[in-house]
Amino acid sequence: MTRLITLCSGKGGVGKTTISTNLAAALHKFGKDVMLVDGNTTTPNVSVILGMPKLPITIQDVLAGNAKLEDSVYLHPSGLKVIPAGLSMKHNKQKHKKKMAKVFNELVGTIEYGLIDCSAGLGNEAKNAMEAGDEFILITNPEIHALTDGLKAIEHAREIGVKTLGVILNRVNNKDYEMSKENVEEFLETPVIGMIPEDESIKKAIAIKKPLIYAYPNSPASRAIKRLAARMIGEDYRTIEPETFSQKILRMFGVYK
Ligand SMILES: Nc1ncnc2c1ncn2[C@@H]1O[C@H](COP(=O)(O)OP(=O)(O)O)[C@@H](O)[C@H]1O
Ligand SMILES: [Mg+2]
Q1: What's the CATH code of the domain at 189?
Q2: Which residue owns the Cα nearest ligand 1 atom 8?
Q3: Whole-prediction pTM
Q4: Which domain holds residue 214?
Q5: Which of 118, 177, 117, 166 is nearest to 142 (CA)?
Q6: 80, 202, 207, 234: which has the highest count of C-beta atoms within 10 A?
Q7: Mean pLDDT in runs of 10 for the chain (257 residues)?
């Protein structure tokens, strides 16, 4: 069975690309057949974050009707399958003759998980990407303006009949001024399925163009993303990646969860 999951936000810059890339990498690392799709065709980032910036056939070529979907699939050195979006203005100018939903539907039956990184806002591009998934995850920060935009995304998903899998709260600092998990769940009427801490390692991983979960496998954000991936596939993270003695000690002191 193929699960096509779109990661959207409403507000920009909340961490959609960071999380979709690393969640896809983690699901792949845990043995699943995963395709990461850049569904952000106007301001794409997936290939940059993965250090694969120059790829001849892109999702825009497929949407323009100039290439087949299977020809736009590339293999990241980790083994993760990736459908990139082209980065140049030339790619932005390509007219889309095909709907994302129709194109991504071709993935059904060929993989176990398709994760679609969405553009910000609720314009046509983001709506098209959301329609292309059977399920949707809202990425947000624990701040009221990100949540109000997120609520609109959840409402839109409901209107078009896409199941909301839950909310990932990103850049959590556990400060008093932040919205708590309970506040977020009450406001969005949706369960929080993952909490990713603010973590400098994310920026370090982007700088070296490697997925965080490989570059800094034991960083707090890395562990949080892997814990979420394990839960998504019905596994216990501590069984898949047992804690070392020092990690156990650090967890007792609140460094890991
Ligand atoms: N948990 C985090 N801790 C620290 N920085 C983060 C975290 N998540 C994302 N970032 C940073 O936030 C910025 C936006 O992230 P990105 O994934 O590009 O967001 P979006 O795709 O929603 O626009 C990037 O500079 C990224 O490094
Ligand atoms: Mg992005």
Answers
A1: 3.40.50.300
A2: 15
A3: 0.95
A4: 3-252
A5: 177
A6: 202
A7: 95 96 98 96 90 90 95 96 88 85 92 96 91 96 94 95 97 94 97 97 96 95 97 94 83 70
